Amino acid sequence: MSKKLFLLFVLVLLSSCASNQQINNINDRLGKIESAISKNTSDLNKIKPKVSEVEEKLNILAKKINTLENNTNSTKKVKISQKTIVEANLDNNTNDITSKIPPASVVFSNETQEKLENKQIKETEEEKPKEAIESKLQPPSVEALKSYENALAIYMKRDFAGALDKFLQFLNNYPHTTLEQNAYFWIGNSYYNLNDYGKALNYFSVCLNNFSKKPTSDGGKTDACIFMLYKTYKSMGNTQKAYDCLMQLKREYPVNPYFEFRGVKN
């Protein structure tokens, strides 16, 4: 009996020692965990200001991206009203045009080109654009501006025949406005896209020769007209005239949004 009690006492003692050891181990582990948590909390407190700074920068970048996207979308959609407001503010000074470029004529060398020349002369007699006197141009009325915007919107939809009709109506109904040069330009473009190159030449020539010489970036159409004359002559197969227009564009507007002069020699 005493042996059994002794063994029982020993077992209880051993289990008590084991339990104390386990508790100590657990306490050690808890201490390490608490220490790690404390360190992580300290690190997080140090990182938080940097995270806030990064978030602020990201918000600024997001705003800039949204602004760029809005500008891009506006450009793609072609906001007609904004475009025409800029175009309506063309310089209305009474400056004389001192350096006019004479209307270009096509030189033909064979029978086929001669037929084209006769056709062009006939078309010129049938429909010759009226010469504009820039000193008499006035800002467009509300009705005139709406008429112009409507014509331009039709052109942007690539309905060139419809746009041509509307622009011609605009010139007839609202003459002598500061949008007159623009109307001549878009009429020329409409004829060009309808492959009526003779009439396109007429309107581009008037657009170029009868208004102040200003590039598109300054509210004018001079560089755009020279470029379209180059394209028109090229489409007609008159490479010499096309080359002459290209060189004129290079001389007068070496930097322009229509043609990048790389490898083109005089």
From TrEMBL:
<keyword id="KW-0802">TPR repeat</keyword>
<dbReference type="InterPro" id="IPR011990">
    <property type="entry name" value="TPR-like_helical_dom_sf"/>
</dbReference>
<protein>
    <submittedName>
        <fullName>TPR repeat containing exported protein</fullName>
    </submittedName>
</protein>
<feature type="signal peptide">
    <location>
        <begin position="1"/>
        <end position="20"/>
    </location>
</feature>
<feature type="region of interest" description="Disordered">
    <location>
        <begin position="115"/>
        <end position="136"/>
    </location>
</feature>
<dbReference type="InterPro" id="IPR019734">
    <property type="entry name" value="TPR_rpt"/>
</dbReference>
<keyword id="KW-0732">Signal</keyword>
<dbReference type="Pfam" id="PF13174">
    <property type="entry name" value="TPR_6"/>
</dbReference>
<feature type="repeat" description="TPR">
    <location>
        <begin position="181"/>
        <end position="214"/>
    </location>
</feature>
<feature type="compositionally biased region" description="Basic and acidic residues">
    <location>
        <begin position="115"/>
        <end position="134"/>
    </location>
</feature>
